[in-house]
Amino acid sequence: MLRRTLPVAVLTFACAQAFAAEPASTKPAAVQREEVGNRVSENIPAIPAELLEKLSRYQNTRGAGLAGWTREGCVLINTRFAETSQVHRVCKPLGAREQLTFYPEPVGGVAAAPAKAKANGFVFSKDKGGDEFSQLYWFDFGTRNTTMLTDGKRSQNGGAVFSPDGTLMAYAGTGRNGTDRDIYVRNVATGETKTVVTEGGSWGAMDFSPDNKELLVSRYVSAAESYPGAVNLEDGKLEMFPVDGGKASFGGFAFAGDGKSVYFVSDEPIQGQPQEFQTLRWHEPASGKLEILTRAIPWDVDGFTIADDDKHLAYVTNEDGISKLHVLALPSHKEVAIPDLPIGVIGGFEFSPDGKRLALTLNSATSPSDTYVIDLAGKQLERWTQSEVGGLDSSKFVAPTLVRYSTFDQVDGKQRTIPAFYYRPANAPKGRKLPVIINIHGGPEGQSLPTFSPTAQFLANELGVAMLVPNVRGSTGYGKTYLSLDNAALREDSVKDIGALLDWIAKQPELDASRIGVYGGSYGGYMVLASLMHYSDRIRAGVDIVGISDFTTFLTNTESYRRDLRRAEYGDERTPEMQEVFARISPARHPERIASRLFVAQGKNDPRVPYTEAEQIVKAVRGNGQPVWYLLFNDEGHGFQKKANADYFGAATMLFWQQHLLGE
């Protein structure tokens, strides 16, 4: 099953002092450095106890995401009760959560063995200090022992898939050369493991055939390009499937129960007509029959799953950021009535081993992730987990509205519009304009969704601050054309979308265009730096988390298994054309243009955006006379997964906004 991972972001902001841009000086500002355990802080003042106390309840919310079913009919969930997220088991609606894994590092990538398997347990992945060199482990329900399944070296392993009878397990790994993600197949009983795909590139295992003779695989190039195929597990032959139009994006791929036909998600042309969105399709190669199951839905299908008894298929569409769940009877493909779900975003979803129930993760703007179960026959929805919200009154949480604002270019003779979620305080004082935080997603092939954010709630309810969460060009969810609008040399067009949002803010009578901050992580961190580079006269301050500061150094230093994937999106730094583009658009090359206050936060073990990207922008901006706050965690990677670290970063961010954004 293809699962969408709900965005996980540590968002934190705050309030108080009026801002005045200081003239740049050629003299580097003095640096006050503090090292406490794994934390290195530069120029960050002591966090006031009053601020920590006020933040405490918001920092103690938590969610519970579905990780699978056990053969006994319990659900596995991933949730945090201490420092990191671990696997728990729940056996009835709102039942006790039994913790199964206990590690200082977060656990993810859970895949439960099928009910028919001889072994009873689940596979999970875990790295060290956020380095993303994840190893796979087997948790056995009988012995409660854990066994490492992969090499334990500097390799990245994940995406475990079991055969229907549980005798085989496929996964992807970089163990052969550290660069290419190959496909491995493991005999669960003997432990014998062999590579079945070593073609080079980034491959993933999708599904075993019912007779265990074939394995569906896919080679990922970019969000707009992937190539599916099948490996004959008896003779090792790899057969790639023809792609209509030569290039397309593919999502999930799975065998039907007959083993002769497949279900898949793609934006391939249909009868020669280009398609903007990814649709769910059924194909029988022998007869050539093709059925477009979601032809009438003009939105992407995010994923699907098929019941073990092959009687039902469930899929989720992403409709302007809101998830819609559908269930089809098989093989008729007739829609099955299901109970209404709360409006929100669906994460993982999976049928129970007997095929009679469907579990799913549901998240909304006013409720953290929780696991729900649908009884298909009874058409009943039951809530299986009730996650905590730090003792806060959830009835006072603010739900965002979806707005669209005009940007600089046109589509079919009309101004293009950009969607954004707008969190507006419910009880804003009359006559007082609201300060604004613009929160920019990463990716860049990501999408901001109206999911629960304790930070947005804190801003709205405690500080009276509005938050705008745009999906600038290049975001997924709005069609193939929109996705491609920021590729390579068009990179700064997405930054212009932020400039257009600044224009929109200035026209809103309730918003204060003189008090705007920007916040973002990863590619969103680049967008923060680029926005400051272009609009420092209109933005007071920015927070950059694990962001790209120079595309040439980023592509040179990112881990080798990611380099070609990122070149497909950003361009090839080895060509003169892109060298010229990168020299023009990289913030580290133009620090003199950043006059707003800046806070940079980074994980030392980040394999995606190396910590050197953070250190070079900090050094460059300081060298231009601007003071910069800098935070480095030696035990984190691409984001902050440990609660103590995330809490400190959140409090520091609040203090930063307090000193450099807000004021009377």
TrEMBL record:
This is Prolyl oligopeptidase family serine peptidase. It comes from the Bacteria. It comes from Noviluteimonas lactosilytica. PROSITE patterns: PROKAR_LIPOPROTEIN. Residues 1-20 form the signal peptide. InterPro entries: 6-blade_b-propeller_TolB-like, AB_hydrolase_fold, Peptidase_S9_cat, Peptidase_S9A, WD40. Keywords: Hydrolase, Protease, Serine protease, Signal. Residues 451-661 form the Peptidase S9 prolyl oligopeptidase catalytic domain. Pfam families: PD40 (PF07676), Peptidase_S9 (PF00326).
